[in-house]
Specification:
heterodimer; A: 94 residues; alpha+beta; Ubiquitin-like (UB roll); five-stranded mixed beta sheet; 5 strands; 31% helix; B: 362 residues; mainly beta; Methylamine Dehydrogenase, Chain H; four-stranded antiparallel beta sheet; 27 strands; 1% helix; globular
Chain lengths: 94, 362
């Protein structure tokens, strides 16, 4: 299946990567599976989203089809063909 | 005398300052990496073209360690993580707190200290680092606690002639040293007195803020502790207080003169507020390994001054007549072209200064 991934402009700029990519995944693949593919294709982007333990960074938000998706249950949920994945910076800083 | 480059790492980006020979006038350029916390800076002058190294982190996108081979005009952010905890540790890098090129005889070797507390070694000029397992596996490590700034290894002192010996320091944990090339490490805090641990204190748990190695005798060290300035004449095996003449025994940085034995600099602040005693902005210099201290404040602000200096925000350069540099928590950067006798202002109103490094460049 193919899923569509959009990275916030600040992430794309920081990681010197694209704003959008299409990713082909096996059926029942999850967000971590998707990020594993991103790690191979765009390692700077992936390491900006997750640390080396695979944990999503605390101030990064993930959405699937507009729904928040960084909690454990959402991360374990299989994606569906045509899913729209969005990676955004959280509202934080000072 | 060539130009001087000064790296200024702040809580909101990096600035680069450059001066011609007299080091009284400065051109300041920045911010580079705006918004990122620049926690470590280094200038590796062992190369024909100096390499700038910089570590830090962003609130959103995590830590980074980048390098520049054109004096900061462009930066190389490697595709793969250059400092990455091995999977079996279960840890993740928060940020790099220290980057130290080794001595001239160890071309290519660069050390890094991180939060969480760990020592890293690069043998390719800082392009990739490997965890120093000997220190990571030290049985004391579970007892190291975070200081106010985090649980970080912030001081790395390679020995200039004996590659088997090295001292590191962390908050908290204290000084550890190896005499077998990093295979084993022992706490090295004997003689430090603290009021925050029961008697007798354990061999670890010391909130060492910074240690500097003497330029002339590598067995002589100076330490700024959480409370107390100490010297060691035996490579850190034991410590003796040398702060009687200082206006406060608290502080964060201590920096050794790059060439002259016995000379070092501190910036005292009070225990309570971590600001200069009596609101007087002043560097203190010793020329006799702490037996006496002289205030060095000519050219520093006269008005009441209430900003401190963090542990990595003081440095010297490598000119024959050493320059001394101080970055403050209210974003001032001061430079002395004559070893602390006189000071000029390099920059005002920058963000909180976290790290400064300076070197002569051609």
């Amino acid at each position: 299946m193919d899923v569509h991934v959009r990275f916030h402009g600040a992430l794309a700029q920081r990681a010197d990567g694209p704003n959008r990519i299409e990713v082909a995944l096996d059926d029942h693949a999850t967000l971590p599976d998707l990020l594993d593919v991103v790690a191979e294709r765009l390692p700077r982007v992936e390491r900006s989203i997750r640390d080396e333990t695979g944990t999503v960074r605390p101030h990064v938000h993930l959405f699937v089809d507009g729904e928040p998706a960084r909690d454990p249950a959402a991360l374990a949920r299989p994606l569906h063909p045509g899913a729209q994945v969005l990676v955004l910076p959280a509202v934080s800083g000072g | 005398m060539g130009d001087t480059l000064l790296m200024i790492g702040t809580r909101k980006g990096l600035w680069l300052a450059r001066s011609d020979g007299d080091r009284t006038g400065w051109e300041v350029d920045g911010p580079h990496f705006p918004g990122e916390e620049i926690t470590a800076t280094a200038i590796d002058t062992r190369r024909s073209s100096p390499r700038l190294l910089m570590g830090g982190f962003g609130w959103h996108w995590g830590p980074f360690l980048v390098r520049s081979d054109d004096l900061g005009r462009s930066w190389n952010d490697p595709e793969q993580r250059s400092v990455v905890f091995p999977e079996d540790t279960g840890e993740a890098l928060h940020t790099v707190w220290q980057i130290v090129p080794d001595h001239d005889g160890r071309d290519g070797v660069v050390w890094a200290g991180s939060e969480p507390s760990a020592l890293w070694c690069s043998e390719d000029h800082g392009e990739s680092f490997e965890l120093v397992r000997g220190l990571w596996d030290n049985p004391d490590r579970p007892h190291w606690e975070p200081g106010g700034g985090g649980k970080a290894l912030h001081t790395i002192l390679p020995h200039p002639t004996d590659d088997h010996r090295m001292n590191v320091a962390m908050s908290t944990g204290g000084v550890y040293r190896t005499q077998d090339g990093g295979e084993t490490w022992a706490p090295s805090n004997h003689g430090i007195t603290v009021d925050y641990m029961p008697e007798p204190p354990p061999p670890y748990g010391y909130c060492v803020h910074r240690v500097a190695r003497d330029a002339g005798d590598p067995t002589h060290l100076m330490m700024q502790h959480h409370g107390g300035v100490y010297r060691s004449d035996d490579d850190g095996a034991s410590w003796t207080p040398v702060d009687e003449q200082l206006p406060a025994d608290f502080g964060f940085p201590v920096v050794a003169h790059p060439h002259r034995s016995g000379t070092a600099y501190v910036f005292p602040v009070t225990h309570v507020s971590r600001t200069p005693p009596q609101g007087r902005c002043a560097v203190y210099r010793t020329d006799d390994a702490g037996a006496s201290w002289q205030e060095c404040a000519e050219g520093l602000p006269d008005e009441p001054y209430h900003a401190g200096v963090l542990r990595d925000a003081m440095c010297t350069d490598d000119h024959d007549t050493a320059g001394v540099y101080v970055g403050t928590r209210d974003g001032h950067v001061f430079a002395s072209p004559d070893e602390g006798e006189h000071w000029t202002t390099v920059a005002r109103h920058l963000p909180d200064v976290l790290s400064v490094r300076a070197a002569a460049i051609s």
